[in-house]
Amino acid sequence: MNDSANPFSTRRVRPGAVDFHFADGETCRSLLERLRRNDWWGEIIGAHGSGKSSLLALLAAAIERDGRHTVSIELHDGRRRLPLKLRQLGRPAAPTVVVVDGYEQLGYWSRFRLKRFCRRRRLGLVVTAHATVGFPELFRTVSDTSLAWLLVDRLMQSYQRLLCKQDVFEAYERQEGNIREMLFDLYDVYESRRRK
What we know:
alpha/beta, 5-stranded parallel beta sheet, 5 strands, elongated
């Protein structure tokens, strides 16, 4: 048992560190097949903290295993421009998919330029957004208290079990269904109990 650390530390709950949980028979493989049928274009839609970034990280790894290169772009804090010059991508030797986390942050002109750039170079484009942005829908993330408890239970597997379902449900409510913020909230709760 790992008693010396907190299971909700940033390195353990960052996007990609927590396994995305699929419901209703969906799998990463089925998403990859859908993406392939859509000529490597698609969107992952969901509310803040509902798992979009975690799913995108999982999907990007699957795209790489499928033999395609990925170029990842993360947009946060109201960034309205691309953080890299599109020409830096050049003409990649391997088939490439541009993966944009937080696509809705971009202004209209940046979105237009990115889509045009990808179409002209025959690059795939997969984005996350809070609402549809006109791409083929790959997946819609949702959160609820059952998912919140499942993720917390997994995170505490090799740690002291200092939290119960009620703690998780209360944190989930405090953070209005945002699982990412709920996990950050639980870091403090867990830490206060661990130090007693």
